[in-house]
Design a protein that fits this description.
There is one protein chain. By secondary structure, the chain is an alpha/beta fold. The protein is built from 20 helices and 22 strands. The strands form six sheets. Strands 15, 16, 17, 18, 19, 20, 21 and 22 form an eight-stranded mixed beta sheet that branches. It is rod-shaped, with a radius of gyration of 44 Å.
């Protein structure tokens, strides 16, 4: 197939697959492209886990954790979880006293504690005094929301939704910015705390998805924020109340917590506030809220690449790869082009994520790229590959391997049906071979002939010629097809001179062995002739025909008349006169030609 048609085919296939998979990704019915989105999420997870980034969690956000260690430490005093409400009030009281900026409590208190009303009142009172405490509220899907009990709600600075939704494959990757219930809108816990910090959160700058969530920009595995165990806070409070020693827990806590933003949450095993995320199947829910606040505070958002950029990316990478594949000259190069395009697509996606938090759909691009590449490689194998196998089978016995490779790499220059072209044809023949063969046994004749013809064919191939055929002991070859060359006349003449030199070596060796005297004659002509696959449907050969071929044969015969070894026509001589050592022989009128032709004997080559 012509190069232009290959390029057109590659472009059309690339366009088709790009449009098809873009439709699946952005607008397919019944969620037919869900598998693509799943792959994109998995790749994004891998990027978070493996790609180093300069984005860091805000160190002023601290998590007070009620973990297994804290529960064991406080169990002798407060019993098993849940602790009395007074304990939470004591933590709020102490955190306010040591100067924290705001507190977010990721624990639900939907009902009063009928068994401990005094504890409830103390908790409510401390929340009211602290002034910047945001309490958790749950907004489960299709169920009634859970708010803090009335007096606690009233005492707080506000509430924040803590309901975290997981993606279909399990992990939590998105954060709900606002919650809507009974005609009212409520902030998330992270947004509620941000409001207490008087942060200017502009909704239009948050890359919200259609469902009101934004993709969390994770800062690392658990522990990206400082964790302080709740029992340490309570011990520090006891020191504060009792006037404990200098440089004790209270003094350390006062220095550490000043101007910090604190989230209080449960991270103990079995207390059901552990979520799956890209880093772990058991990631603390409270750290998810801390992550969301840091995202909001500093604008650390994961932004999806805009559709126009995605469309351009998905169109361009497979298209470039497709063009490279159809231009490649071997299966190995086709695979190399595909691999390089795949690496380019992945690298661009990774760099966009690493440098600017841009989520480029790598899986979508890779899917289009690989499907397109597989189609084109298969097409190459069954079409171009088949053509190359045919050419190799057809020309292996005519051409040297290097010339054959050149032909296979550029088959567009070959017209198998035949074409007219200016070529140079060489005929060589052994002098008096019939007489010579009559003096030898048949097997001796065959052995000598094989030795001679092998040497002559090697020379033809060494000079990038095409072996046409053997005519008895005669060798017929031509230059300039199927691989086109401008200096075909020079190559043919130099091949003829090399033949004469080689025959001299063989003649000397045969004479020393008592074998017959070997002499040859060579005729060379350059002319417009017809070249191509010629023959019947069942038997064809790649050969040349025309008056120019006949003239080369006549010139070879004239060596007997002029007692020479290599005669060229004036048409060949005009192309080599600057390099050849030659003399004018005659102007002859050969059979089949009305006009006479000047002929020359070539005896050497300059340089």
């Amino acid at each position: 197939m012509e190069k232009g048609k290959k390029i057109l085919l590659a472009g059309l296939l690339s366009l088709f697959f790009s449009v098809f998979f873009l439709f699946l990704f952005y607008g397919s019915p019944r969620n037919a492209g869900a598998w693509l989105h799943l792959m994109e999420r998995k790749i994004l997870d891998a990027e978070f886990r493996n790609i180093p980034r300069s984005v860091k969690a805000d160190p002023s956000i601290v998590i007070v954790t009620i973990n297994d260690t804290a529960l064991r430490a406080m169990e002798p005093k407060y019993g098993r979880w849940p602790w009395p409400r007074r304990v939470m009030g004591e933590m709020v009281e102490y955190l306010r006293a040591i100067g924290v900026r705001a507190i977010g409590i990721d624990i639900l208190y939907p009902e009063r504690n009928a068994k401990d009303p005094q504890g409830d009142r103390f908790f409510v009172d401390q929340v009211h005094k602290a002034g910047k405490v945001v309490l958790a509220a749950d907004f489960p899907e299709n169920r009634k929301p859970l708010f803090p009990f009335a007096s606690l709600f009233k005492a707080s600075a506000g509430i924040g939704g803590v309901h975290l939704s997981a993606d279909p494959d399990g992990p939590t990757r998105r954060y709900q910015h606002l919650y809507h219930s009974e005609g009212k809108t409520y902030p998330s816990l992270a947004l509620g705390v941000a409001q207490q910090l008087s942060l200017q959160i502009q909704p239009e700058k948050i890359p919200l998805l259609k469902n009101g969530t934004f993709n969390l920009h994770w800062y690392g595995p658990k522990g990206a924020f400082p964790y302080i165990e709740a029992d340490k806070i309570l011990e520090a409070r006891e020191e504060w109340k009792s006037g404990g020693p200098e440089a004790g827990l209270h003094e350390q806590a006062s220095e550490f917590f000043k101007d910090k933003v604190v989230f209080i949450g449960v991270t103990a095993t079995g207390l059901f506030d552990l979520r799956a995320n890209p880093y772990s199947p058991v990631y603390p829910g409270v750290e998810i809220h801390a992550t969301a606040l840091s995202n909001l505070w500093h604008g650390d958002f994961i932004r999806r690449a805009p559709p126009p950029a995605v469309i351009l990316f998905v169109l361009l990478i497979p298209l470039l790869a497709g063009l490279g594949i159809v231009m490649a000259q071997s299966p190995l190069k086709e695979l190399l082009v595909t691999a390089l395009a795949s690496i380019l697509a992945t690298t661009c996606g990774i760099l966009a994520f690493q440098k600017s938090g841009l989520w480029v759909p790598i899986a979508l691009t890779q899917t289009v790229l690989l499907v397109n590449a597989a189609t084109l490689i298969s097409w190459n194998y069954f079409t171009t590959g088949r053509e190359k196998r045919f050419l190799r089978n057809a020309f292996a016995r005519y051409l040297t391997e290097d010339v054959l490779k050149e032909l296979l790499n550029h088959p567009e220059g070959l017209k198998l049906g035949g074409e007219n072209a200016t070529l140079t044809v060489l005929f060589s023949d052994i002098r008096d071979f019939t007489t010579l063969s009559e003096k030898l046994k048949p097997d001796e004749v065959v052995a000598l002939l094989n030795e001679y013809l092998t040497a002559m064919v090697d020379i033809v191939f060494q000079h990038q010629g095409t072996l046409d055929k053997f005519i008895g002991d005669a060798v017929m070859a031509f230059w300039g097809a199927p691989v086109k060359t401008e200096d075909h006349a020079a190559k043919a003449v130099r091949a003829g001179l090399a033949m004469l030199e080689k025959v001299g070596e063989i003649r000397a060796r045969w004479q020393s062995q008592g074998k017959p005297l070997l002499k040859i004659g060579i005729g060379i002509n350059t002319a417009p002739i017809t070249v191509g696959n010629i023959g019947s449907e069942k038997c064809q050969s790649y050969t040349v025909i025309g008056d120019g071929v006949n003239l080369a044969s006549r010139l070879e015969s004239l060596n007997k008349t002029y007692h020479t070894e290599l005669i060229v026509s004036e048409f060949t001589y005009e192309r080599i006169r600057e390099k050849a050592i030659a003399r004018t022989l005659d102007e002859v009128k050969v059979k089949g030609k009305e006009q006479s032709v000047k002929i020359y004997e070539v005896t050497g080559w300059k340089g």
